[in-house]
Amino acid sequence: MVLGDFIADFVVPAAWLVIEVDGDAHRGRGAPDARRDRKLAKLGYRVLRLEAGVVERALPQALERVREALNA
Asked: How buried is residue 45: exposed, middle or buried, by Cβ count under 10 Å (0-12/13-18/19+)?
C-alpha cells in the first residue's frame, strides 16, 4: 500500500498500523528506516518492524508480535 512517499509491506488501516518485514537489505539502514518511521508517524501510523528471519523461522512469534501491536 502506498502511504505518502512510501510503499508499505503490510498495512492494517483500521488500526493505523504498518508492518514492515526487514530482510538483509535493511541491515545498516537504521537512520533511513528511522526517518521513514517518523514520517509515517506524522501520518498517524504506528510501525512494527519484524526481521525477515523471524517471519521465516518463527512465524508464531511474529504473529504474536502483530497481535500485541494490534491490541496496544
From this structure: buried
Question: 0.90 cut: is pTM over it?
Answer: no
Q: Which amino acid is at 27?
A: R
3-state secondary structure the chain: CEECCEECCEEEHHHCEEEEEECHHHCCCHHHHHHHHHHHHHCCCEEEEEEHHHHHHCHHHHHHHHHHHHHC
Band (pLDDT 50/70/90 cuts) for residue 1 is: confident
Q: Which amino acid is at 28?
A: G
What digits encode the pLDDT tens for the residues 12-67? 999 999 999 988 765 666 778 889 999 999 999 999 999 999 999 999 999 999 99
